[in-house]
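Subject: for your reference before the review

Hello V.,

The reviewers asked for a structural picture of the protein, and I figured it would be easier to keep everything in one thread rather than splitting it across files. Below is the amino acid sequence we used in the manuscript, unchanged from the supplementary table.
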Amino acid sequence: MKAALEELEAGGSLRTVGARYGIPHNTLQDHRRGRYTYQPHPSRALLPEEEASLVAYIIWMGRHGFPVTRAVATLMATGIVKASGRQTMVNFEHGLSRMWWCRFRERHPELSARTPDPLDRQRVFGVTVPRVEALFNILEPMFAEKSWHDCPHLVFNCDETGFGDKQKSGKEKVYAQRGQKHVYRQTVVTREHISVHCCASAAGVSIPPMIIYAQCLPSNSYALDGPPNALYAISEKGYMDGPLFVRWIEHFLKHAPAERPLLLTCDQHETHMSKDVVDLCRGNGVEVVCLPSHTTHALQPLDVSLFGPLKEAFTKLATNMGLVRGDLVLGKKHFSSILKFAYPKAATVENIKKGFRLTGLFPLNRHALEDSDQMMIIPPVAVQPAPLGTTLSTAQVQSAPPSTTITLAQIHPAPPSTTISTAQVHPAPPSTTISTAQVHPAPPSTTISTAQVHPAPPSTTISTAQVHPAPPSTTISTAQVHPAPPSTTISTAQVHPAPPDIISVPVVAGCVECPTCHRPPNPLVAAGIIPAGLAHILVPPRFDQSARRRRRQQVPAGARCITSDEFASHQAEKEREEREKQEAKRRRMEEVKERRALMEEEKKRKQREKEQREREKAQREREKAERERERERGKEQREREKQREREQERERLRREREQERLQNDICASCKHPSPPGSATEILEWVQCENCTLWYHTECVTHVVPEEAWLCRECATSRDL
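And here is what came back from the structure prediction:
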């Protein structure tokens, strides 16, 4: 369309140009008359300054690892319209329309729809200015001492990458029927993990790779079909370990240039930092520098420019082989043969040099990542201001009077040995003008003052005072700037490079919590990204900066040269401490064993005593039971004797009663119930008054019924 319009402007005919470019002449006529030019909506939902704030917020969030989706951006825009309180046609229930979003995108071409790349949180916040500066603080003296600036063939980088376990489909598009919901691609590579350890120099020359299989080597002639001079090894799960890395160092020394010393950069995996590796490298003139942890995605040349094309070429070759044979499954026996053709396509001189250039490792450039999206800017945190005379890594602003607006620029690290004091705002009377105080670089040992501004009365706005970088050993103190009139703008001091180990953050004036929501002030307002009126809508993520949270966080390891004398002494000290620790642990284990043996002996003794007490208790229980049984037997015996006595007594009484009955029922003279020779029972009886014996009336000779009768014996006895 642009070319057709240019040809029309040059004097071409509508129909001729339309036929040449395949565009209807009516469409060309409308474009020439300006009917397709952008016309703003007569009633825009957001004001231009509100849209600018929303765009700045979206860009800020994307730069800090929290990209905003269309739904979130539309929701925030609706919130801005609702908070403004002005009359609008926006439906707050359904939010802004799709047409508004399309026009918003047209008005702001600086925004682009992207698919975010997932990245571990530690990696997101791993590539920071202090950590990158620390790496180059190690490399720059080494390059100057070893004269590596003009020797790219002596600077190497090594790392390993994995294949097979998580195969991704290539970026190449495929064609299928329109309307087909899913287009599948058959996987032709097994999920068995295989590692490839690669190494390349800054001159674009690569060392033959090392291929690590899991558990066992392939059964076929893998070495003949693989990359030339490649090294093959096995491990339990197909990953690099300490002994294998020592073997690779020997392989590296075999194929590296004979010129010494060499520089080898790698990550800080424990397999790369063993004592055997350090001793082998120190003995062969190889300086090993470990990159900061969680930064290899940005600082490792192989990760930046080699592994991506290598996996893409490998996947493409494997997929193309699957098109030839549908039943083909590529396992470990085919891996080396495919890698033989994929590796040269990725490990080109241009790709390798590009990786070293983008990471700044060669040519050595500590500012290579400044314009890169990999460099993470730590979100600002509001902190409480410090009193006058306090030496801090941040510029602090004390509280201003009511209705005073104070903006804050970001404070960057300053060079080593630089002392930066606080910039403070003090009261200024009305009708006073305060301009920007700017301090330029000064030679060493120069005293440079910052702008010290006195607080303005109500409705006074404070603008910026900027302090530029000072050389090492420079002391920056405060300089006084006199009062400004109302509506004067003053900002806080912006201090450039600070020591790498200090991270300075912007500070909001007063740094007090909101009385309504009890949250700290919005740092985006302090940084001048959004206005104060939108601080409750465009809110950045909140980070827990409590001491408890910092204690739980693991401090990532920084860059270090593991072949240096300092690291060697550190390792020796660490080994000595480890030996002492092991010796102390051995002594503790022996003490524990002795205490455990004593405890076991004491336990056995107590067990024996317990068993003896249980036996004695059982014996006492048996004796007690025996006594109880004896008592029971004696009691039963006594009961039986008593029962026998009672029975005997009853028998005696029965005999006595029987005897008495017999005695009462017989005659004392004839000893019979009836007289001898009598067939009938005698019913007449007579009893002696003296002996109470009964007699038959027929057996006695005399009976005087009216008188007391005595038997013969009693009568005889009476007469005598």
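For the response letter, the relevant points are probably these. Confidence is low (pLDDT under 50) at residues 379-512. The two ends are 186 Å apart (CA to CA).

Happy to draft the paragraph if you're swamped.

O.
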